[in-house]
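Lab manual, section 2.4: Encoding a predicted structure.

Procedure: take the sequence of the chain (589 residues), apply the prediction step described in section 2.3, and record the output as C-alpha cells. A sample record is shown.
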Amino acid sequence: MSELRNTTQYLLPVTKQAQPGSYDPYPVHDLGHDKIHCDYDSLARRLANHRNVVIDGYIGIRFDDFATRLGKALAAIGIIPLWWNTSAAIKPEDEIDDLIKPFLGGDDPIFGYRAPLTLYSFFEMEKLRDIKPDPAAGMNILIGYGAALAGWDAETVYIDLPKNEIQFRARSGSILNLGATKAAPPKKMYKRFYFIDWVVMNRHKKSILPEIDIYVDGQREDVITWAEGADLREGLERLTRNGFRVRPWFEPGAWGGQWIREHIPALPHDVPNYAWSFELIVPENGIIFSSDNKMLEVSFDTVMFQNGRNVVGQKCYDTYGDEFPIRMDYLDNFDGGNLSIQCHPRRSYIQKNFGEVLTQEETYYILDTRPDAVVFLGFQPDIDPEKFRAALTESFEKGTELDVPRYINSEPSKKHGLYLIPPGTLHSSGRNNLVLEISTTPYIFTFKMYDWLSLDLDGKPRPLNIARAMDNLYFDRKGSKVSNELVSKPALMETGTGWELWHLPTHRNHSYDVHRYKVNTGSGVEVLTEGKCHVLNLVEGESAEVITREGEKFHLNYAETLVISAAARSYHIVNTSGRDIMMVKAFMK
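Recorded output:
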C-alpha cells in the first residue's frame, strides 16, 4: 500500500524476469529491439527538437506529477518549456454534474447507464481552442485530459493507464473522476468510471490513436516506459493478425479461496485469499509489450481500436463493434465460502436499463473441485415465486438465514463439467470449486438475492438487488429441466491422429459456444478460425504451444488464457506436456 495506490498487488516491473512456477502473470509480446525506452530523461531528449508538444492521457493520470518530472528532465538538457493546462478550459463542476447525472442511476450503489457523451462535452471548447502556443517560447507544452482536442500542430504524447491501476489509485483517494474536484468513496468512483469516464475516454483514445507520436505507460510514476506511436501501432496490428495473452489481475473477496494462492507463487501472499483471477475481462485488462526485456502496458481497448475487425472477424464486428464479446475469469472458493445466490439480466433488460450491447450469458467450467462440492442452479420443482420473494425479503430485513435447499436446486460439481447459466438463471458456485467462468463480456451486472449473511472485506454487507432479480428470473428453470437443459452433455465431433474434438453445447440463449480438444502426448492438431475469434484455456496438462499460420508462437501453461484473432485463419496446438492435454475453446456462434 502506498500514497498513490491502495493494494498489495505488485506494480508491473520495468523489466521482464522469470516467474516462479509455471503460470506467468506478466505475458509479453515482443515489439523488437530498442523499441521501448525507459525514464523521463530519454523522453526529454526525444522531445527536445519540438517547439510544440501536447500531452494527453487516460483518466487516473496525475498530470501535475508527470509535468514536474518531465520538466526536471528537460531542464537538465537546458530546456525550460512554457506550460499550458487543459484544466483552464474544463467546465465548472456543477455543469459537469448536471451533464452526467442522467447516467449515474441516482442512489443505486452499483448501476448506471453507459453515457453517450464525448470528451468535448466536458470542455468549454472555445476556451480550449483559445489556448495557443507562444511563438516566442522555446517550447510550449499543453498538458491534461483532452489536450489533443485543442488543435495544436504539435508532437502528441499519450499517457495510458491500466484500469486495475485506476481502481487501486481510486481506493487510496489519489485521483479524481473526470471533472470532479474531490475524491468520492471508491465504489462510487468505480460506478462513475464504468458508466461515464471509461466510455468517454475510450472514444477519445480511439479518435486520436492514429495520430499519437509517443505512447507512455504511466502506471509507474517514477520510472515511465514509452514507445514511438508508429512502433506501437505496428505491434498492435501484428496481434490483430495472430493473437495475444492479456495481463491478468487478481483480487481477494469475501468468499475467496486458496487455490490461486497455492498455484500461482508469483502473486503476493499477504492477502487473505484470491476470489478472482481476471483472465480476460477486457474492459479492465491490459496488454504488455516488451523490448530488450523492458515492458510497456497498454489498455486492451487499443488493440480493438487498432483493428477490431481482424480480432473478432467481420460478422462479429458488424454486430458488436469494438466490444470484445467473450470473457474468461476464475472464481476461487477453495476453502472459502459460497458465492451469492444471483442472476444476470435478460438482454432486453440490460439494453434498456444500462445501455449495454451484450448481457452476461455465463457458463461455469469446473477446472478443479472437491468431493461433495455443488453448483447451485435453478429452482426446486415446487418453487413458488411469491414465497421465494417473501423469504428473500425476510432474510434481508431481519438478517435470517434463507432455507436454500427449500427453494434452490443444486447439481454435483464435476471436474471438467460445464454448467449453463443463460440470462435470468438463478445460480451460485458452492464452496470448494475453482470455476473457469466463460461468458459474454459484461461483468458487473449481477443481481444478488442472498449473500449467506456474509460481509464484504470492508466489513459491510454487499448490496442486494432482489427486485431486479425477480424481474429477470425464469422460474421454469427448475427440477429435472435443470439437469436436462443446463448441464452440458459433451459429444464427440471429430477425431484425428492423436486428437479428439468434443462439443460442449451451450444453451440456445447463449450467443457463444464451447469446444474442447483432447491432444495426446507428442501430438498436435490444426484448427481453422473460420472468420471467428477463438479464446483458449489449457484446462488439463502442464503446457502447450500454439503456433499461428503467420508463425507467431505462444507458450501456454496450465490454466492460462490465450486469444487467437479471427484474422489468424488457422493455428496449430502442440502438446508439450508429458501427458495428454485438454484445451477449451470458446467462440461466438
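Check your result against the sample. The mean pLDDT is 97.
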